[in-house]
Amino acid sequence: MRIIVFGADGYLGWPTALYLSARGHDVWAVDSLVRRKWDRLCGTQSLVPVASMERRVARWEAVSGKAIHWCKLDLCDLVALEQLVDEVQPEAVVHFAEQRSAPYSMISAAHAVETQVNNVAGTLNLLFAVRDHAPDCHIVKLGTMGEYGTPDIDIEEGFIEIEHNGRRDRLPYPKQAGSFYHLSKVHDSHNILFACRAWGLASTDLNQGVVYGVATEETAMHRELATRFDYDGIWGTVLNRFCVQAAIGRPVSVYGRGGQTRGFLDIRDTVRCVELAIANPAEAGEYRVFNQFTEQFSVAELAERVVRARAHHGLETVVEHIPNPRSEKEEHYYNARHQHLMDLGLVPHKLADTLVDDVVTVVNQHVGRVRVNTIDSVVDWRKGGMVAAARQADSRAGQLLALRARAAVPVGAGAR
Ligand code: NAD
Ligand code: USQ
Asked: 0.90 cut: is pTM over it?
C-alpha cells in the first residue's frame, strides 16, 4: 500500500515507517522536525543519539534495499499538505504528528495554545486534505488513553451504551482528560468523528497507553536507525524515566501515593497495532476506536518492577514518593477494555520480559549522555513552570500569531 506516516522523525513514527517499509509498503515519511526545535528550546535531548532524517533514510536503503520517501512538511501548512496528499494518493495515512507532552502543554498559556493549535489545526487540515484529494484513504490517528481520564466505571473502546429515561443509545464514551495536551486529543477525536459522519471518511482512532522500550527489530539493525528515547521531566514517559533515574543512582520519582494506574505497551506492539489497523481498515463513514495498550500498572507497581529488573543485574534501586506536580487521582478504579486489537491478532510483548534484557541494558549503555539537570519535573499543573523558557515561547507565540494575522493566512499555515 501507499502509506504516509506523519510525525516520522519521532519516537514512534520512525520505527513505524521502518516497520511498514520492511513489510513491503511504499512509505512516505513526513515531519516538520519541530520536535527537534522543542528539544533545543527546553535544553533536552534523547538518551539514544538520533541521526538526521536524511541519514536515517539513506541508512535504511543501504541496510534493507528499500526506499522511504522523506518529506519535511508541517501539517499546519494546508497548501503543502494538500499537494502531498494529491500527489501520493495514499491508501492509508498514519498520524503521529502532534505535540505529545502533557507537561509541555501545562508550562504557560503560550504552550497550551501552541499545543492545541498545532494538534487540532494539523488534524483538521489532514481531514480536509483527505476529503478533497484522497477520500478513500484510511486515516489511522494516534489518540490517547488519557482522553478518558479515570472514571469510576469500566472504560470501553470509544463508545458506551447508555440508557436514559427509558431510551438507549450508543454514544461516545465521556472524556475527562488530565492536561491541555490530552484535551487536544479529545478535540481531535470529536473532529474526526464528525468528518467521518459528515463526509464519509474512514478512520481508526488508536487510543494508545504509555509506550515504553527503546528498540524494534528494524531500529536495532544499525545505530543510525535508532529512535529517540526521552527521559527528562518534560518529554520522558514514566517507565523510561524510572530506568534512567535508577541508572544514574537517583531515586525513581513516584508522584504522590503512586496509585495512578495507566495502560502500557511495548514500542514493538505500537508498530504491530498500526499494521493491524491498516490491514483491517475502517469502512467508508466509519469512525472506530481501538484502545491500544496491553497491560495496566499503577505507577508504584512500575517502580517496583524497575527495582526487581535491576536486581537481576545486581543493581540497587531506591524509590522515592515526591509531591505530585500534576492534578490527578492517586488512588482510583481502573479497568479499561482493549479487545479489538487482540481480536485482530495482536500478541503482546510483556513488560516482565522486556524490562530486564532490553530497557535496563540499553539505558546503561548510554548513561554517559544523561543530562542530569533536565531530569526533575519542572512543570506544576497548578503553577506552570520553566519561567524563562515560558517567556521565550510566549514572545515567540505572540510573534507567530501577529504574523499570521497580518498575512491573513489560515491559523498554522506555514508560519513556522
Ligand atoms: P514525538 O514527539 O517523539 O514525535 C512526534 C513527531 O511529530 C515529532 O517528530 C514532531 O517533529 C512531529 N510533529 C509535531 N507536530 C507536527 C506538525 N504540525 N507537522 C509535522 N510534524 C509534526 O512523539 P511520540 O512519542 O512519537 O508520539 C507520537 C504520537 O503518538 C503522538 O500523537 C502522541 O500523542 C501519541 N502517543 C504517544 C505515546 C507515548 O507514550 N509516546 C502514548 C500515546 C500516544
Ligand atoms: N509519573 C510519575 N513519576 C514520573 C513521571 C510520571 O509518577 O516521574 C506518573 C504521572 O503522574 C502519571 C503517569 O506517571 O500519572 C504517566 O505519566 P507519563 O508522563 O508517563 O504519561 P502521560 O503524561 O500520560 O503522557 C504519555 C505520553 C503521551 C501519551 C500518554 C498516554 O507523553 O503522549 O498520550 O502517555 S496515556 O497516559 O494513556 O494518556
From this structure: yes
